[in-house]
Amino acid sequence: MMFAMQIFPLVILGYESTWLQIAVRCYLAIFCISFILTESRIPMLRKYNDINWILRGFLYSFIGLVGMEQDLAVKVQDIAAGTISVLGPDYGTLFAALFMSITTWVMIGVGILYTVLGLMCTQGWYERLDDTHRGKVKEWKLKKKRDEDF
User: Fold this and answer.
1) Which tens digit of pLDDT belongs to each residue from 20-39?
2) Residue of 2, 27, 116, 124 with fewest CB within 10 Å of its CB?
3) What is the pLDDT of residues 98-141, one digit of tens each?
4) Which secondary structure element, helix H or strand E, spans residue 4, and what is its range?
5) Contact at 8 Å (CB) between 90 and 44?
6) For residue 101, what is the enclosing H or E element?
7) DSSP symbols for 18-80
8) Dihedral Cα 127, 128, 129, 134, nearest 10 deg
9) Mean pLDDT highest for which of 63-67, 87-91, 124-128, 138-142?
10) CB within 8 A of 29, min separation 6: which ones?
11) Does this model's pTM top 0.90?
């Protein structure tokens, strides 16, 4: 969602941005892609998934807060430029603003959840459950292969 929030105003709406805004959006889009790859738990990238949940929570919250600041900066820029209609925004702008607000709040919420779960030391519990599950899946595949051989 946050990746879409960075790309949506540039691509779909054709929003005119400054070079600084484009640079920040590109940087955050790359950052979001790294989060997507980390959270997808791809076996090839498994060694990079061992980030502490408290740190991960702070990173998610930071990305959400930066997104919220970007949204506010765009609104202030529109007010200063006089491009906001007196009657209210059109549907495209209203949808984009609502999408950006929901996305930033979801990112902040996920960040808070990761931080709280990390503070409650549930990461070790989750990793033990995951290792147990992977072991059972591997055991099941071996048993299935043996049964197919007979």
Assistant:
1) 777 877 888 888 787 777 77
2) 124
3) 888 888 899 899 999 999 999 998 988 988 998 899 999 999 99
4) helix 2-11
5) no
6) helix 91-119
7) -HHHHHHHHHHHHHHHHHHHHHTT-GGGGGG----HHHHHHHHHHHHHHHHHHHHHHHHHHHH
8) 90
9) 138-142
10) 3, 6, 7
11) no
Q: Tokens in use for 27?
A: 């940087």
DSSP state of 87: T
140 exposure class (CB count in 10 Å sphere: 0-12, 13-18, 19+): exposed
Identity of the residue numbered 129: L
Locus of tokens 């459950």: 129
In the block, tokens 């919220």 appear at 68
Residue whose token pair is 């999408």: 99
Q: What are phi and psi of 16, to 5 degrees?
A: -80, 120
C-beta of residue 68 within 8 angstroms of C-beta of residue 103: no
